[in-house]
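Practice problem 4.
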């Protein structure tokens, strides 16, 4: 048997909704009226893997490699505003990939980022930020743009910082944290200033910053 609300209960419900306008399916969840010390912006853990490795690194490098990739589908990418890296830099990145030998301490062998960027998983992106980019990009000024090159390398360092554990009680922790945080913030500002696609400014990155 289905319980049917009385006219009084319906009226009381309308009155309650009126007092808490902005809550419910069109606003904030009702649980936050019961637990006022909580906030939807801080209640849920932030997935660093998706936020940094996918939403920042993957989007960034898909954009940098899009125009000159041998994959024709990526040539039609929306990431045309930056123009992609020069073909000479693309060729050098691929040539250097052939000379890298990964030790047994790493999870897997290095995958050429130009050829396999669409197949990179989280551990590939972390390896790229941690050591791959330092080897492959040595001496290369990305897109011959000193500002872009500096920002990209700072983002790599920031991703490594936030994805590995640190002693928050150490004297240098606050300075390292601020440096990494500032690097990600600088990337977000760069995206806005250069009017790059809003896909780079994801919800999780917004929450993170």
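Answer key:
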């Amino acid at each position: 048997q289905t319980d049917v609300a009385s006219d009084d209960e319906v009226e009381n419900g309308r009155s309650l909704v009126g007092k808490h306008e902005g809550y419910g399916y069109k606003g904030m969840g009702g649980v936050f009226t019961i637990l006022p010390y909580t906030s939807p912006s801080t209640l849920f853990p932030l997935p660093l893997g998706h936020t940094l490795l996918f939403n920042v690194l993957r989007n960034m490098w898909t954009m940098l490699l899009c125009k000159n990739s041998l994959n024709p589908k990526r040539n039609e990418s929306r990431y045309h505003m930056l123009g992609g890296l020069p073909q000479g830099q693309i060729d050098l990145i691929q040539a250097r990939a052939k000379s890298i030998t990964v030790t047994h301490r790493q999870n897997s062998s290095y995958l050429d980022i130009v050829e396999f960027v669409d197949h990179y998983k989280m551990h590939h992106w972390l390896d790229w930020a941690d050591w791959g980019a330092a080897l492959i990009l040595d001496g290369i000024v990305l897109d011959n743009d000193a500002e872009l090159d500096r920002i990209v390398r700072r983002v790599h360092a920031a991703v490594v910082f936030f994805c590995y554990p640190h002693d928050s009680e150490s004297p240098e922790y606050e300075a390292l944290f601020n440096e990494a945080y500032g690097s990600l913030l600088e990337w977000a500002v760069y995206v806005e200033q250069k009017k790059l696609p809003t896909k780079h400014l994801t919800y999780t990155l917004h929450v993170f910053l």
